[in-house]
Amino acid sequence: MSLALDQAAVFRRLRARLFRNGLSVLMETGRVKLYSMAATSVIVALLVFGLSAFGFLELSKNNLPMKGFIVGGLFDLLFFTLGVMLLMSTGIILYASLFASPESRFLLTTPARADRIFATKFIDAVSFSSWGFVVMGLPILVAYGVTAGVPLAFYPLLPLFLLGYVLLPGAASALACLLFMRYMPRNRRQVLTVAGTVAVVALGVWLYRVSAASKAAVTTNNRDALEGFIGQFSLARNPITPSHWMTNGLLAAARGDSAREILIPLALIWSNGLFAFLLAAFAARRLYRTAFDRTTGSGGRKKVYRGNVLDRVMEWLVFYLDKPTRILVVKDFRTFRRDPSQWAILLLFAGLMLLGVRNFRQFSQAELDGIDKYIVSLVNLAGVSVLLCAGLSRFIFPLISLEGRKFWILGLMPISRRQILVGKFAFAATGSVAIGLTLVVGSELLLGLSPVGVLVHALTILTIAVGLSGLNVGLGAYMPNFRETDPSKIVVGFSGTVNMITGLLFVVVVVALMAVPMHAAAVLRHFNKLQSRDFPWWVYAGLPIGLTLGVVATVLPLRAGTASIQRVEF
């Protein structure tokens, strides 16, 4: 048997062993995490299904053909957007697993081939990044099938199209990651600055054109304007793009066309995806070890770390702290901004939310009814709150655990452990409050919500941001894991699962107490056709309760975490 076959068999056995061990450990000690993940996925899928079915029914009520140009354009845009998200997320995960993982460093010291290591990490990255794609994409397509009355053969074809589609953007991002790490000049800042400037200018021009077309589509409310808006996304409708292959194949299956019309797009998706993977594996065989050596050896020259503008801004934002604590806050911020695997994911989240805010502007230009504005604003508030919960759980909760065995170094500083936790809380609260208030208040102003509604939502997101910061820092110190160096494993562990569930419950309760009563009053006022714009007293009754809950969620975990970390010996 050849060496290649031996290595393939070894890696297959390793993957099977890791899967069995992980499943057994999960069933023995992590059933709560398993059930919570499954329940969350089901809830998200049902919500996406309901919203998608409502949208397709609205298209049907307006006598738009469910298997024609407009739906095809929407599918092109959907798959193109999901493909770009897969491209970015897979590239970020691959960078972290190929060039910043201790496991990859160990595997490169073994006789394992570089392309075999790459294939193993590629499968993990694609599986992880495509989970959200399946949870989001499958309910949309099922809702389309239910509302459009497609043949039964449409449904078994959905997994084949979706699984084939994730290969191409994943392989493309892997190839780009390898080429970038191998051939990018060592002084990457200038190159990235120029590339980023060009990308921002091009994006601005495109957004201006899309804004003009979307304004016409929303305000005129006719078919030609809507087709003109969809035409702005001509790249997604190009016959050579995989998103268009997906649309052609699925619409052919929905219409009940011949097998040839269905299988040719499916074959294009799978064949090009597999070819792109082989091309990336070939590049990994030639470039991976060299790129890894180049990355790890780039610190040969002495680096002089000077002050950064962003660091000074962060220090100014926490001016109310003493000097040693401000230094620790800047240290955490500097560690965060130097790790692309962290800030790139946050940048992706921020981009998605900014895209949503841009869409809200089009709603406001369409002069929505008051009830519609309140519904859209509540969805926006809930979305930002959940994103804050996920982001803080991913980035803030592992901070104490990641100090690990190096925690004793902090003990040499003229600062107490309590001040360390206060600094991490200030770092988390400052960032989350800035992001949350900007997204929520900005979108409410674009919607034209009443001043009372803007104030209530601002208080709600402020309470959620500060409370989640206290929960993540406090529980991270109360239940640390100093044996683990991978933040993703800390997050998905038992303590991370408890923190995530607690944070979600906190978000649900605070939104229900502080924001939902106002929206319920708006709905009642709309259906009862009341002219008064004043809200009843019970709308404001939950505000002090929610604020009190936010204080409790901040103070109690921080006190428990401080007491716990004081007892730890390093």
From TrEMBL:
The chain crosses the membrane at residues 34-57, 77-101, 122-146, 152-179, 191-208, 262-284, 343-361, 381-400, 421-442, 454-478, 490-517, 537-558. Pfam families: ABC_tran_2. Keywords: Membrane, Transmembrane, Transmembrane helix. It comes from the Bacteria. The keyword RNA-binding does not apply. The keyword Transmembrane helix applies. This is Uncharacterized protein.
